[in-house]
Amino acid sequence: MLYDATGFQHIYLCTGYTDLRKGVQGLAALVKGNFRLDPTEEGSIFLFCGRRVDRIKALIYEPDGWLLCYKRLTAGSFQWPRSPQEVMDLTQEQYQLLMQGFSLKKKIHIKDVKPVLY
Question: In this structure, is residue 2 part of a structural domain?
Fold first, then answer.
């Protein structure tokens, strides 16, 4: 699920370090208090990363309740921006690149992206 961003109108990357021990209420309070965003905004996903960059949490509000997702990579790490107290609104393409391990800090040229062979 976290690999595919289709269906989300807004993809928010909550930069900096987040205590991933937080649950739904704690992360929703962080979105509302620190970032001044509505965590119940339909079609939005909020992404958080702790100090260990091999795992992330995603917070999604659906009409019938909350969805809290946790992803831990078996190899590699996420290239997570660490500017604290900021939030980035990502495009679906940026989201896909982040999930594939590319950094959002530098420009990525299409010629730099090599296809993955299975």
Answer: no
Q: Which domain holds residue 29?
A: 10-112
- Cβ proximity of 27 and 46 under 8 Å: yes
CA distance 8 to 89: 11
Residue 20 to residues 56, 65, 95, Cα–Cα distance (Å): 8, 20, 20
Among 72-76, 79-83, 93-97, 100-104, name the one with the lowest average pLDDT. Answer: 100-104
Whole-model pTM: value is 0.79
Q: How far apart are CA 88 and CA 84, in angstroms?
A: 11
In order of 42, 70, 85, 92, 96, the CA distances from 65 in angstroms are 11, 17, 26, 24, 26
Asked whether residue 118 is assigned to any structural domain, the reply reads no
pLDDT-derived band at 106, boundaries 50, 70, 90: very low
DSSP 35: T
Query: Residue ranges of the alpha helices (H) in 8-116?
Result: 24-33, 92-99
